[in-house]
């Protein structure tokens, strides 16, 4: 999905004659549409099947690449970004619900960890491929080609899905998902801080921002791939609060303006911690949710992610303008306290998780 990102802004600004404000809205519309798409993708996955939702996501991403290539000017960019936002929402919801269904809820954290590793790895590799391709047109064609290949491969994989009579209807999110959503959401307030201000903040302290971001992303990917199953084997409350603690330490160290030898390990610790809270919360939510509501549960948790990343970006910009870059890291650390409070009421005590953990170990 990220192949067009390196060339998107120059293409809009110089080739199509758009303004800087247009660039901002074109980039931001993706998250808005993805947030709205989450509310639809869950009922679709529960009512029509996980494969249908997954295919819908791949189809939207493929179609977005095709629309970028059409001579529609800025209109084509707007349509393509909207399709890509829908595609991301449907793709993740269908894939996550399907993965958990295939392996069982007792291994849900591991399944979500592998899935997240693949998605984040693709998001990280996309801009690299896009930069290598050189032009917006080539990047758009690659997106269309890659999405189309994925779509065709997925059609060959069978799904044994039996719809539930109550599944597939649009409804207001259950109150039982609000606290898990807030616990996940507040964790992600740090993400726009890292993406937007890490490099700028560390430029005055040895200019290690790019290396620190690489350490952050690398630690997160490796941890999700190799340690993603921990919430299935130890109480999720343990992994959740371990993750929050590691994140808080990393953010506070980065806020202090450390030199490279400290900043890079701190960023790696932040990425390591970030790999645990979502899977810890999601594994508990998926165990509690009936099979015909798991797609909706995944989509609502993901919607909170989009909501808090978007609102966190606006908040971080305002805080940075008034108080400086360091304050944005303190803001993100404070958000972790709110996540810790919400998580306390979501995650069961260790003794209540023991039977499930033993079942997971036996499996």
Quick structural overview:
It is built from 16 helices and no strands. The protein has helices spanning 5-15, 20-48, 50-69, 74-103, 108-133, 136-155, 178-187, 190-202, 209-226, 230-233, 236-255, 260-274, 277-288, 294-323, 325-346, 350-362.
Word description of this protein:
It is a single chain. This protein is an all-alpha fold. Helix 2 (20-48) runs parallel beside helix 4 (74-103) and helix 5 (108-133) packs across helix 13. 81% of the residues lie in helices and 0% in strands. The protein is built from 16 helices and no strands. The protein has helices spanning 5-15, 20-48, 50-69, 74-103, 108-133, 136-155, 178-187, 190-202, 209-226, 230-233, 236-255, 260-274, 277-288, 294-323, 325-346, 350-362. The chain has two domains: 5-155, MFS general substrate transporter like domains (Growth Hormone, Chain: A), CATH 1.20.1250.20; 175-362, MFS general substrate transporter like domains (Growth Hormone, Chain: A, Up-down Bundle), CATH 1.20.1250.
């Amino acid at each position: 999905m990220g192949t067009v990102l390196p060339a998107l802004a120059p293409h809009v600004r110089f080739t199509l004659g758009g303004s800087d404000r247009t660039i901002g809205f074109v980039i931001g519309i993706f998250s808005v549409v993805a947030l709205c798409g989450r509310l639809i993708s869950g009922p679709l996955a529960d009512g029509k099947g996980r494969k249908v939702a997954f295919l819908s996501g791949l189809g939207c991403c493929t179609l977005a690449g095709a629309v970028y290539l059409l001579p529609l000017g800025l209109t084509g960019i707007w349509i393509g970004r909207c399709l890509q936002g829908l595609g991301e929402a449907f793709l993740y919801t269908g894939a996550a619900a399907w993965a958990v269904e295939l392996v069982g809820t007792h291994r849900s954290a591991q399944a979500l960890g592998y899935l997240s590793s693949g998605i984040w790895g693709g998001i990280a590799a996309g801009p690299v491929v896009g930069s290598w391709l050189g032009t917006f047109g080539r990047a758009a064609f690659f997106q269309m080609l890659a999405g189309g290949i994925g779509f065709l491969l997925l059609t060959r994989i069978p799904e044994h899905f039996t719809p539930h009579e109550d599944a597939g209807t649009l409804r207001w999110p259950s109150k039982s998902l609000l606290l898990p959503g807030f616990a996940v959401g507040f964790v992600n307030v740090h993400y726009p801080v890292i993406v937007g201000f890490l490099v700028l903040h560390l430029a005055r302290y040895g200019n290690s921002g790019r290396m620190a971001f690489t350490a952050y992303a690398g630690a997160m990917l490796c941890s999700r791939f190799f340690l993603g199953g921990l919430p299935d084997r130890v109480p999720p409350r343990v992994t959740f609060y371990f993750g929050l603690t590691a994140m808080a330490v990393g953010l506070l160290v980065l806020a202090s303006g450390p030199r490279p030898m400290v900043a890079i390990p701190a960023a790696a610790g932040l990425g390591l911690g970030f790999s645990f809270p979502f899977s810890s919360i999601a594994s508990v939510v998926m165990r509690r949710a009936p099979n015909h509501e798991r797609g909706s549960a995944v989509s609502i948790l993901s919607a909170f992610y989009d909501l808090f990343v978007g609102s966190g970006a606006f908040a971080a910009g305002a805080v940075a303008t008034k108080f400086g870059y360091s304050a944005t890291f303190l803001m993100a650390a404070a958000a972790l306290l709110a996540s810790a409070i919400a998580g306390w009421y979501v995650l069961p005590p260790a003794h209540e998780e023991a039977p499930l953990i033993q079942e997971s170990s036996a499996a």
